[in-house]
Amino acid sequence: MRLLGAVGIVAGAIVLAAGGLDAQTIATIMTARLMEPNQKTVEVSTQELQEILSAGGAMVFDARPHLEWAISHIPGAVNVAPKPGVPIAQYVSDVNEVGRLVGADKAAPIVLYCNGPFCGKSKRLGEELVAAGYSNVRRYQLGIPTWRALMGVTAIELEGALHVYKNDKTAVFLDVREPSEFAAGTIPGARNIPRSLVLVGKDVGEILKAKNDGRLPMEDHNTRIIIVGGDSAQARFVAEQVAKEAFHNVSYFVGTYETLRSVIK
Q1: Contacts 24+ apart (CB under 8 A), 213-216
Q2: pLDDT tens digits along 188-225
Q3: Rounded distance, CA 78 to CA 80, Å?
Q4: What are the phi and psi torsion angles at 154 (to 5°)?
Q5: Could you tell me if 13 and 134 lie in one domain?
Q6: pLDDT digits over 39-92, tens only?
Q7: Same domain, 30 and 110
Q8: Cα 84 to the center of its chain, rounded Å
Q9: Residue-number span of the structural domain to which 21 is assigned
Q10: Domain tally, the chain
C-alpha cells in the first residue's frame, strides 16, 4: 500500500514506535513502498527487505559513497566503488563492481538502497544495471531513514567509527562490556552500559537508569550513538534495546572493542 510521501511514512513510524497502532495499520507501514511513477525496477518494502536479509535471498547493495556506508548502513549490506568520472552530485556506484561481487550473474537477485525518497543514487544504479542486462534488480527506495525509523539500528565499520570519533564531538560512545573491563580501559569519553544488565523491553533495567543518570542523551534523541562491545553480537543486542527508547541514530560496531581501541589515538 502507498503512504503519501516520506513525511507520512516517518510520522507513521513514530506513532508505531509509541505503540499507538493496531496490527492492520502496522502491516501497512511495514509493507509501504514509495510507488513512484515510471520506475525501471521494482520496489521492496521494509518487511520484504527484512525477510530478504534474514533468508539471504539477495545481495543487498548500499548505493551511497563508501564513507557514508562505513558510518552507518543496514546490517548485511555491502558497498562498491563509484563509477569513474561522475561528479559527486550525480554519484552512482560502478556496475562493473556490482558484477564482480555477483560473479557476473545477470540473473542474480539484487536489492539497492540509498538515502530515501529524495535520493536518486539507488535509482540511477538500478537503471544502469537494467541497461547492462541485469534482470532481477529491486530497490528499497524508502532507504536508510525509514529503516532507522522502523527497524532501529544500523551497523558501523571501523573506518566509520574512527571518522565519527575524530569529527563528531556530539557523538556518544557506549561501551557495553562489564564494569571491570570498562574500568581497566575504554575509549576516551565512552560511557558504560553493561550488556549483562540490559533487559529486553522499554523503560527497564540499566537502560532506564542510563536515561535518568545522563549516560543516554535524553535532551537530543537525534544524537549519534555508537555502541561497542566485546563482540558485535553483544553490541547489537544493546543497540536494539537503546533504539527502542526512540533514539533515532543508533549504530553498533561490527568489530570488537579491542579492534576499535587499537586505532584510536
Answers
A1: 215/174, 215/191, 216/172, 216/242, 216/245, 216/247
A2: 999 999 999 999 999 999 999 999 999 999 999 999 99
A3: 7
A4: -125, 170
A5: yes
A6: 999 999 999 999 999 999 999 999 999 999 999 999 999 999 999 999 999 999
A7: yes
A8: 26
A9: 5-148
A10: 2
